[in-house]
Amino acid sequence: MRNGLIGLCWALLLVAALVTKAYAQREPVQNPKLDQLIAAARAEGELDLVAGGGTWGEAEGVKIIQDALNKKYGLNIRIRYAAGPAMPVMTNRVMETHKAGAKSDTDLLVSNARPVNMVLGKGVTRSFAWREAFPYFPADTIEFGGQLIRFVDVFNGITFNTREVTGKERLQRLDDVLNPKWKGRIASTPYASALYFLASNRLLGYEKATAYVRALGRQIGGLIRCGEESRIASGEFLMLAMNCGNYGGEDYARKTGAPVGVTILEDAAVLDSFYFVVPVNSAHPNVATLLVGFLMSKEGQDILSRVVGWSSASVEGTPVNREYKEMEKKGVKVVRFTAASWAGEEGQILNRATTEFQKILAGR
Q1: Shared domain check, 334 and 312
Q2: Quick one: 247 and 165 in the same domain?
Q3: CB 156 within 8 A of CB 245
Q4: Of 346, 149, 349, 327, which is closest to residue 246 (Cα–Cα)?
């Protein structure tokens, strides 16, 4: 009898422990920092975004993001979107409005790694305790004391026509692009996209990179802008060396079914970076901050990937995260370029290469 009572007591204690644990798991984790941010965002009620259309997926993409943000946090935020200029121009505009003591045109700046350096150390950026409000934030995406959030990583590679470039002709290395077979059928960009990265001492170095770009300049049949994948699909050009990010070709092929593919070169596996910046002169800084936090979650990254084909290599399970791991498995060295890469000695090399390589490709 006594043993039976003891056994019953132990069983009841075990059940109580399991119930307590289950209840604790259902209870929301208290996060005062996030609660304060949500309340402040609710009070602001709206957000202004000005950027190039490809950044947010036009009005349709903005609506998807707006609805997801509101559903996540129980809000009724209205996001107003207006098409704006290229990222360097937009970054400069944020600087100018700050100098003038005016509100920023955009509450959230999206900039790539090179121009984003313009805002650093100028009192233009709003820092935030990101991981306090959003514990899931990958630590390596928070740069310069929280002033910059590296929210997207893109592999730069070759965009090509999959009907014309097939099988063993697939491009694997830089020299494959120089095959005489492709002479006159290759395009590059007027901004020497990603080619300047080759000048880094972590890749070819300045002299070898310059020699390569000169050879490429003799090989190309013209210059096209990023976003003109239709000219590859039509066969006007068979490939683009190098692109502004593989996401462009992937997204175009997915949406149109066109014969466009992308590849990452084994000896130039470059990973470029894009950033979120909340300007100090933002009219709605709390909504902007909350949106950044949401888009850095796996849910937010999935939406970004669906809307514009972008994702972060640092967020587990995203398309670029998977690509990064695949490259590592193959033994391919991935070279990442961030905002810091455009400063100091490496920055001097990259800036010099950008200017020189643009001239070479333009035939000057």
Answers
A1: no
A2: yes
A3: yes
A4: 327
We report the CATH number of the domain holding residue 192 as: 3.40.190.10
Give pTM, 2 decimals: 0.87
| Mode of pairing for the β-strands spanning 269-277 and 334-336 | parallel
Instruction: Kindly state the helix (H) or strand (E) to which residue 93 belongs, with its residue range.
Output: helix 87-99
What range does the domain containing 301 cover? 32-153+273-320
Structural domain count, the chain: 2
Would residue 3 count as lying in a domain? no
Task: Answer yes or no: is pLDDT of 162 > 70.
Answer: yes
Report yes or no on 4 lying in a domain. Answer: no
Rg (CA), the chain: 24
Q: Per the domain annotation, does 8 fall within a domain?
A: no
pLDDT value at residue 131: 97
Neighbouring residues of 316: CB distance < 8 A, sequence distance ≥ 6: 298
Could you tell me which of 160, 156, 215 has the C-alpha nearest to residue 191?
156
10 domain-assigned? no
Question: Do 160 and 265 belong together in one domain?
Answer: yes
Longest dimension (CA), the chain: 99
Q: How confident is the model at residue 26 (pLDDT cuts 50, 70, 90)?
A: very low
Tens digit of each residue's pLDDT (9 = 90 or more) over 178-235? 999 999 999 999 999 999 999 999 999 999 999 999 999 999 999 999 889 999 999 9
Q: Which residues contact 178 (CB under 8 A, 6 or more apart)?
A: 215, 216, 219
